[in-house]
Amino acid sequence: xxxxxxxxxxxxxxxxxxxxxxxxxxxxxxxxxxxxxxxxxxxxxxxxxxxxxxxxxxxxxxxxxxxxxxxxxxxxxxxxxxxxxxxxxxxxxxxxxxxxxxxxxxxxxxxxxxxxxxxxxxxxxxxxxxxxxxxxxxxxxxxxxxxxxxxxxxxxxxxxxxxxxxxxxxxxxxxxxxxxxxxxxxxxxxxxxxxxxxxxxxxxxxxxxxxxxxxxxxxxxxxxxxxxxxxxxxxxxxxxxxxxxxxxxxxxxxxxxxxxxxxxxxxxxxxxxxxxxxxxxxxxxxxxxxxxxxxxxxxxxxxxxxxxxxxxxxxxxxxxxxxxxxxxxxxxxxxxxxxxxxxxxxxxxxxxxxxxxxxxxxxxxxxxxxxxxxxxxxxxxxxxxxxxxxxxxxxxxxxxxxxxxxxxxxxxxxxxxxxxxxxxxxxxxxxxxxxxxxxxxxxxxxxxxxxxxxxxxxxxxxxxxxxxxxxxxxxxxxxxxxxxxxxxxxxxxxxxxxxxxxxxxxxxxxxxxxxxxxxxxxx
Length: 523
What we know:
Blueprint: H1 3-6, H2 45-56, E1 64-67, H3 74-82, H4 85-90, E2 94-100, H5 107-125, H6 131-140, H7 147-163, E3 167-173, H8 178-181, H9 188-197, E4 204-209, H10 213-220, E5 232-235, H11 241-248, H12 256-270, H13 274-286, H14 294-299, H15 307-323, H16 326-334, H17 342-350, E6 354-357, E7 360-363, H18 366-379, H19 383-404, H20 408-415, H21 420-437, H22 451-460, H23 462-469, H24 473-491, H25 500-521
């Protein structure tokens, strides 16, 4: 624990140093990326209350699953609540056992380690054990037993531990790995359920995972359908304003106005994601710079955002893709909604990957929204209308390039000044994406246009495009107006504002344009 951690009030806020203001801030976020606990752990009051009530404060411990996306604070919460020495002072009869499922081996190894860790804790805190419990321990760890015998002896040992007033809590971290680790061992989940559910020994079973338990069990052993039924799920999402304010307050010497502005700016940049917010605060606190308001120091580190942001997005979308959920996320926040269901959206909302803003589903932060826009374009999940838009953009770009050459945007500004605002908007969006994503960003200016933009560009040079697509401007103006009208609600999951007739006409106009573009491509 750092000096900065030690200089805290009970609420987690740092006490400023006396005397002159230092030229470099203390950095309570220097170990960002590692689990946090004690004074470093902020927020999650509701989840902590549920876990305390369910696992620690009742005569019978209840099985509980802590669920959330990567780096949202699942392991930190579990460690903070169950593993710190301060917790043992508050609950002197608690025996917490921490186990990483990914490295813990099969169920026989899990059970043996549970017994050994409980016995070690008893030896440290109550060295004088009676002969009966000692004999039960020796039988439980005896070599060469079959699994059924080992399970029975372990249950007897845990029963005696419970009867002597001890509460065992087993924290199974990274429980997603159970779908692989336990796949070859039928009955594993039933055995774990029995350890938690039977009142004779009743260990408190706590898991941390990205997926819900039913999914994990279905992947490993579909017959074990009753395992998840004994759990209560506690979902972790991004920090709300209160928790994010508490996180910012860990920085020394932030006055109230600066605290409010910094919290708001951090919410904009990170969406309240605790890891991403801590990455930014680490950059600010570790910078060797003259003292200045925290919000100003923060803005010095956002153009571009730290590489950890894109690394996190890449890892997160990779996991979602492996789970088959990436398409659902893309359809919910980008559209069109072709295979995604309302239930899919609710799951994504519950997991904190999306939020509702102005009645629309959006990614948890604007920066992540822009990242999804980038990969959505690359992965080709935008289907019918995106395919049409892409080909119309190619048509427009080819027409202007043939007339004006590669520098056609500059020529277009000179020839049609009214289009300058549209081109400037596209260049601003392109520059923002380039700053954020470097070589992965699109360099094509027209990738940042919308249906009405494309029609306005074509209408400005009807002598080029009218010959290609036929009909008159009024005919195509009507079609592009409807495409624009339906496209935005489709992108933002608000198709309820679009009438069934408009939806059908949208499909008809897309097919008409696609047929036209196919004929042009065929010569």
